[in-house]
Each structure stands twice: as C-alpha cells, then as structure tokens.
Amino acid sequence: MASLDISSVLQGGYQHPLSRSWQAKRTLTKGMLMYPIFITDDPDAHVEIPSLPGQARWGVNKLEEFIGPLVQKGLKSVILFGVPLKAPKDPKGTPADDVEGPVILAIKKLRALYPDLYIATDVCLCEYTSHGHCGILNEDGSINSAPSAARIAEVALAYARAGAHCVAPSDMMDGRIKAIKRALIDNGFGNRCTLMSYSAKFASALYGPFRDAAGSAPSFGNRKCYQLPPQAKGLARRAIQRDVNEGADIIMVKPALPYLDVIQDAAELAPDHPLACYQVSGEYAMVVAGARAGVYDLRTMAFETCESMLRAGCTLILTYFTPQFLDWLDE
Ligand SMILES: NCc1[nH]cc(CCC(=O)O)c1CC(=O)O
Ligand SMILES: [Zn+2]
Ligand SMILES: [Zn+2]
Fold it and tell me: CATH number of the domain at 28-328, please?
C-alpha cells in the first residue's frame, strides 16, 4: 500500500471541532450582527409579514416587548426602517423626517430603554414618496440628483439629532455621502454619528419581501438607473472608492450571497474601513423556504451563508436571522 506524501495530507489539521474553528480568519459573534426592524406608525401594531417569516411590523409602544428579550440574549445593534401607513406621501418624502414619525420616535424610545444598544437608521425616501422612488424626480421621471442628495442629507441629520448612532443611506443617489457628511459636520454631529454607506447596492430581484413589508415598491418604472446593474463589477468598485473618498465610515455591499466577489473587492479597496453586508429579505426568505422544503437544515444553512460573507471579508452582517443567531451562538 503506497503511503501518501507529506504534502498531500491536510486532514490532520481539522479533525477536531476546535482545530476546525481555528481555520476561520473570522468567527461569527453577536457583535457582528445588526438586526433590521420595521417600525410602523400605528403605535400598538404587531403585524406579521407573510413574505418574511418570523418578522413583523412593530409600533413604538411594542418595542420593549419586542426588543427587550433580544437585548437580554445579547443583541448589540439594530437598523430601523420606517413603514408609514397613515402619513400622506408626497414627491419629496416629507414624512421621512417628521419628528412625530415612527423612526424618530423609535430612536428616542430605544435610546431611553437600552442605553447600550447601537441604533442605526436606514435613510431613504422610497417609503415616504408618493411615486415610491428613492430620490426626487424631474418632470420626466428621471432622478434629480442635487435636490435628492440634499433631501437625503436633511433626513439623515434629523435621525442623528434624534439620537441615531449611525445613519445608513440606501438610496443610491450620486453625491449623497458627501452631502450627509457635510450636514453632520456642520451641525455638530461629525464626531457623534457614523455614516454607513450602502455603497455597492445592486438592482436585485431579492428585495421583494422587503418592499412588501415596507410598502416601498415604485409606482412606475424600476430602480435600475440608480441601483447598480448586477453584472457590474467595475461600477461597484468605483462606487466603493467614491464613498470612501466622500467620507463614509462603513462600506456596505447588498445583497450579500450573490455578491461575495464584490465583498472581497470592497475588503481590498477599503481595507481600513469596517465592511458590512446585507443578507436581504429575499436571501432570508430563500434560506427559510429551502429549509421548509427539506433541502437543508435551517441553522446549518444560516451559518454557512453568513460564514461565506465573513470569509469574503465582511466584519458586520445585517440579517433577519439575528434573533435566531443569538440563540444558536449560545448553544
Ligand atoms: N431603499 C429601500 C431599501 N432599503 C433596504 C432595502 C432592501 C432590504 C431587504 O430586501 O431586506 C430596500 C429595498 C429597495 O431598494 O428596493
Ligand atoms: Zn429607497
Ligand atoms: Zn432603504
């Protein structure tokens, strides 16, 4: 029997659970998880979202019941999405920075209830505009960049004033990172609020359940003139570099699983920045659906997907699996 050559034998290095864990450059921890939550303007709401199993729209009065047990289990951060059901939408997204609106009320409530919880806010107009697009439009329906960036900066500043630790623009308007950073600095929030840019956000088919949850589908057209084309690697690299240059503190890639190469590019282009990725609603729904169909075990697949993101280079994951990971990471 011919014995294997020394250089052929790898299995000795990972025969034990502990030695397997040493093979990871980065291991999933609770601090890496940011939980996306939907806050609606009915203060007593707790409404399940059918397309996002296990997720719901919550009213501010229900936040303690919702978030309290998760903080007990080690939840470190959330990202808030506003879902206005009653507020009158208009072309400028006026309800986005209403001081009585659900996002601003939720920031204040969560800051008061959980002083150690890190509170990020998604910043976009699509949930608040009558046309459902993420910016301000010209008469022909195209994006009007300058007023869009200015309006996004105004909304971000309002969330920072309310106490958000982080503002995260997901709109993909040109120039918004610079505009937000300027607004934060000029109003005394330069050193008090993190700017996390959805830098490489693609025009993906995976946002369906979110648009359903947030009521933010565009009333006409699509988002292909501002979200990146899925086949565009070069544009993603340029967007990442631009946002670094415009003052982003954290870079994000979204969606995550079909864009692991972009995560890897971002880690190379912005090695000195934290790197986030968003396991979006459709990715979550796919993982859950596959488990329900018996294709794989849910927990095993949830870890495998998120570990692939860490392997590609991200340091922070926005995921709807956060509550389950808080349990799984304790087991
Ligand atoms: N700007 C809106 C926004 N912010 C986050 C998501 C997607 C999040 C998810 O699917 O989980 C979207 C949807 C979109 O751009 O259409
Ligand atoms: Zn939007
Ligand atoms: Zn958004």
Answer: 3.20.20.70
